[in-house]
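Long-time lurker. I teach an intro course on protein structure, and each term I like to show students one example going from raw sequence to a predicted 3D structure in token notation. This year I'd like something fresh instead of my usual example. Would anyone be willing to generate the tokens for the chain below so I can use it in lecture? Attribution to the forum is fine with me.
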Amino acid sequence: MTSDEEFQLQNHLGLDLIMREYRETDSPQCCALDEKMGSVSMHGSQVIIAKKYIDTFHSVFQQSHEYFGIVLEDRTLKEEVKLIGMIFLTIRNVIYQNKEIKIGHIHSLRVDKEYRRFGLAAKLVEALEKKAKDRGVTMIEAFAPKDSSPGVKLYEKLNYRHDFTQGWGIWDPKHLPHVPHKFKINKNLRLTFETIDKQTTKKYWEEFYNKSDLLPANWDDVLNSTEFKASYLVKSQDNSIMAGITRGVMKTNKISIYQKYYVPISYYNSIFFNGILLAVTTGASFGLHFILTKMFNVKKKVTDLAAALFGGIALTLYARFRSKILANEKESHAKSNYLIAPFYFGDEKYEELAIKYLFDKVADTAKKDGPVHLTFRAEEGNPFLTYMPCDRKTEGYYMTKVIQNEELFDRTKRISYKPFFSFH
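-- Reply from a regular --
Happy to contribute to a lecture. Here you go:
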């Protein structure tokens, strides 16, 4: 399926269903489908707010080296074409079993609730695999939440393998008190915190992950990513203990799905945009005054009051709407911080203290950039996930499938850990 190619699904539903490649102009409909599915936020009480304002899809995927998506449309009613399904794949080069390959990560597999149980999700995945082969992808990975039985069964049915169970920790450190720069373990051992440069980070990564089985083909791709924020290290004065981690910040464009024309959030801080809205409201008030006076012969005092009331209500509603949008923009930014590629060198008995101190200092530092939620994913039992002071933890299955050249790999060996989860 080329970028302009479409094909009609054979189905017994009596519907005209078309599958084609995603275009940037599909972004509003994709956002609307995601919001309808209730999958915009994972942050508990903030779900109601976050569902109103979500990120444009293409801005997220363009950050990857390569990406594509497939959408499913219902064209039964020609005057009302509906986007009812979608799936995306981001592609990166990795080293797997000492071979450089392209790996794709599945994002946002969605099928409208009204069209479920007809095998459409499987059709989307199969179409994605076919397109991925054409782009030279060797392996595809997917994450299936533990509490999503249909998702797990779907991937198992399509021959995806469960490599390991991963945990996902979410932490809001806004109430964390200031953490001192130095931490005393005992009278002879003290830890200090510092931010380290990219080359130092790379040196630790290469040493700690030299035996891992799924790594970036080029470490610099991660370090030079637009998502990279900083790397942090806590260490003892004699370097016998060292613990580190890297923070990334997703950079996306915010939009509101309740605005017909999806006005960017930055407009609400624009004097020009707010001036236009004020002029429109003033004009509408004068228009109302004119209609009541000239066409309905309403008394001047009444028309003056009606026009003033109309303008006041309109401006009040806009002010409230604007404040919610700007407040949500901060929350949306806060949700985009994540931690990757942790490492620890030293005596196991000091591991817990060093990791906890590292997390506290990273959170204390991150707060200076504004409200933050820190997320971290790792395999079940990873000490960094164990000691992260999470507000919430979820679990799911990391699943993979080799879609071509399978004879080149020993698939009896399961992937043990993927340290660079968020840099898909």
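Some talking points for your students: Residues 40-58, 252-262 have pLDDT under 50 and may be disordered. The two ends are 23 Å apart (CA to CA).
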